[in-house]
Amino acid sequence: MLGVFNLSPLQMDALREVGNVGAGNAATALSEMVQKPVDMKVPSLGVVPFNEVAERMGGPESLVAGVYLKVHGGAPANLLFVLPFDSARMLVDLVMGLPGGSTQVIEDLQASALMEVGNILAGTYLNALSMFTQLAYEQSVPALAIDMAAAIISAVLTTIAEVGDQALLLETEFIGGGDQLIKGCLFLIPEEGSLEIILGSLGLA
Question: What angle do CA 6, 194, 167 make, to 5 degrees?
Fold first, then answer.
C-alpha cells in the first residue's frame, strides 16, 4: 500500500488543488444556504498519523464536534470534519442566521445544521475529486458526535482499523457574517488501495 508519507511535492500540489476547488465550491454552496457571502479557504494540507490526529484537533481532551461520513465509489474512503466546540457554535450561528454568540448548546436543531455543513463540505470536496479523477463517489448520511477529540478518533478508528495508520488533513477556514474566523479540519482517510487509484486517475501514480 502506498503511504501518504511518501507523496511527492507534485502529488501533494495536485491534492491541494482539489482541496482548493472543493473549498471554493463549498463557499458558494454555503453562501447560497445562508444568503450572505461566505469565504472558505484551505490554508494548508498535510499528512497526519492517526496517533497525532487528536493533537491537531486541539488535544486529546479538547471538546470538539465531529461529522463523519463514509465514502463509497471508485476510491472508497472516510471523511471526518472536526471543529473545536467554540467554532462549532459560531458555525451554527452563521448557518442559522443568528447573532454571534447566540448558540451555547448543541441540541437537535443545531446538530442538524452542523451535519448539513459537513454534508456540503464533503459533497463539494468529493465533486472536486470526481472532476479531477473522473471517478464516481457517493457519500453516506453524516453522523455527528460531540465529545473529547480522543474519544471521537477512537470511535472512528474502530470502523476503519484495517485501513492503515494515516490521514490526509485539509485545514479549513470560514469567514462569513462578520469577521469571526471559524477553523476546522477535514480528514480524508483512504481505504486500502484508494490512494493509488486517486493518484493514478490524476496521472501521478
Answer: 55
